[in-house]
Amino acid sequence: MTGIGADQGEREVVVPKGGRVRISWAAASDTGRRRTANEDSWIAKPPVFAVADGMGGHDAGDLASAAVVEQLLDAAREDYASAAGVERALKAATDDIAAVSGRSELGVGTTVTGAALVLQDGEPFFAVFNIGDSRVYAYEGGRLRQVTVDHSVVQELVDSGALTPEQAEHHPDSNVITRAIGFAATPLPDYWMLPAAPGLRLLICSDGLTKEVNEARLRMHLAAGLKPVDTAGALIDAALAAGGRDNITAIVVDVH
Asked: What pLDDT is stored for residue 176 in this prediction?
């Protein structure tokens, strides 16, 4: 497991059109109860927050996820990031993963999901990006919604109406993803733009959290109003209590 930035902190930046935006955050990760190594990695360095979930076995998965967050550090050099900077980082990570994949017959790769603070028409937004089945949720005004859409076989079945979202969570192919970084493929992230408005709370997490903790419980923890560090810790504890079958990583970001 590689963590870049601070596992908790606060930062304020100037908005070009006037005023300031202040964000606070916390990141937490755990190997879980059934894995011997943590292949998740994270970056929490404003303006970039992201989680990567590596695939490819003990060392290779960790190296793949680490390659992504290390390259995303280049997109976090200024007060605001850009979608173009995120894409350059993901493409560079693809090359790094190819270099560490060695002779792996199954290939090496990673998911990545995150949110980068950017400017749009002079106003602050979060550019949410995703490749794979890690997720970003937004909690605002008492409502929780999943921002990202999984790149997975079961998500395609849900989209076609063949499965309900509840059935998808327990489908035998629930771990089969259709997009990743690595495997000699060009990274193809999806994007969503969210206004960085006061009261917005983001949850960025690997599927080790969402496969153990359902949306009702996610909402309960995010709605409790605890500080990001306490909220992230409570989410990890909830996933461990539910079985902790995979590595678990969560970043909570608040806009003030």
From this structure: 83
Query: CATH number for the domain including 170?
Result: 3.60.40.10
CA distance linking residue 107 with residue 181, whole number of Å: 11
Domain that holds residue 57: 2-255
Instruction: State how beta strands 2-5 and 190-195 pair.
Output: unpaired
* Cβ neighbour number for residue 215 with a 10 Å cutoff: 13
Number of domains in the chain: 1
Cα–Cα distance between 60 and 186 in angstroms, integer?
Answer: 19
Q: Residue written as tokens 């989209």?
A: 159
pTM of the predicted protein model: 0.95
Distance CA 39, CA 2 (A): 8
129 half-sphere exposure, CB direction, 13 A CA radius? 28
**171-193: per-residue pLDDT in tens?**
777 678 899 999 878 899 999 99
